[in-house]
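Please, structure for the following, as tokens.
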Amino acid sequence: DTYVVVAANAWMNQPVIQERLQKLERAIKGAAGARLKPAEIMDLNKTLAEAGIAAIKNPKQFKPEFVNRVGGLIPFQVMTPDAVEKIAHIHVDNLLAKKLKAQGYTLQCDPAVYAYLVKNGYSVEYGARPLNRVVEAIETEITTAEGYEPGQEDAGEAKIKGMVHLSVRGGDIA
């Protein structure tokens, strides 16, 4: 058996989908009064799944020859603010902290940093993909900061040189 995974966003431009996704993005970005209830997220996921199935069966979107070869559909769930925050924790706590540790630095983050990453690292169109660029920009800022001295790994452990503390001041990472 062969499984082929195809991601298609052919239905994403429908007004009802755009309206709900924009509300989700406002909630993730922290707009006042834009918090989504779990029932609303479930409703959004159901609407997206139904729209996706309808789009796949629409001959204007996909040719019947293709649709007849599709054995099944698995609609993806939209990202919630909690999911984006978990991804932010993985990026910072695992990936960035390990890179800094190899250079001889420990990393400490205020909780506001994760909220900043959720707000600035998510978009309706690209999901959490922008999060990579935000974390990379933070890493670049750290490694080019005055006083930062890259270390060499010695026998698997770098000499501890200092601590990097990330916080949010004035709406930006400090």
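Residues 141 and 174 are 10 Å apart (CA to CA). Residues 153-158 have pLDDT under 50 and may be disordered.
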